[in-house]
């Protein structure tokens, strides 16, 4: 099957519903990013979303660890990359990521940030495969009602 990778917009409700069924935590967030200036790249098998990569241009926002940082003009943030379980193991995440790189470069954007948990070995392997490098570790601690987020920059 030939997959088509393209961006979607807010009018494509069926595709948005499929994305939200894969990553429910994006409800509201996906629509807001598309309304602002974010982009969602989807890999389509006919009308079926095989995978997607959601990219933001305003800020790095990692809600799980309460981390927000404004992006500069030539930077973007990969909010989420997901491949549907039926399409895993076929190199689709790599193809999606390279399509995102290509699109960003044509816009003059030369830095793409991403984040993942240390236990997400699939995403860590993808990141290494497509040339991303570790630049920082974010530590989040919560005790009772207090929380603390620290960023440990790594040597380049």
Kindly summarize this structure in a few lines.
With 156 residues, the protein is α+β, with helices and mostly antiparallel strands.
Task: Please tell me about this protein's structure.
- There is one protein chain.
- This protein is α+β, with helices and mostly antiparallel strands.
- It has four helices and nine strands; from the N terminus they run βααβββββαβαββ.
- The chain has helices spanning 13-22, 29-35, 92-106, 121-129; strands at 4-8, 39-45, 48-56, 59-62, 67-70, 75-83, 111-113, 136-143, 146-153.
- It has a five-stranded mixed sheet, sandwiched between helices. Strands 4-5 form a two-stranded antiparallel ribbon. Strands 8-9 form a two-stranded antiparallel ribbon.
- A hairpin with a 2-residue loop joins β8 (136-143) and β9 (146-153).
- The longest helix has 15 residues, at 92-106.
Key attributes of the depicted protein:
4 helices; alpha+beta; 156 residues; single chain; globular; 37% strand
Number of strands: 9
Q: What are the secondary-structure elements, in order, as H or E?
A: EHHEEEEEHEHEE
SSE class: alpha+beta
Percent of residues in helices: 25-40%
Topology of this protein?
Blueprint: E1 4-8, H1 13-22, H2 29-35, E2 39-45, E3 48-56, E4 59-62, E5 67-70, E6 75-83, H3 92-106, E7 111-113, H4 121-129, E8 136-143, E9 146-153
Parallel strand pairs: 6-7
Antiparallel strand pairs: 1-2, 2-3, 3-6, 4-5, 8-9
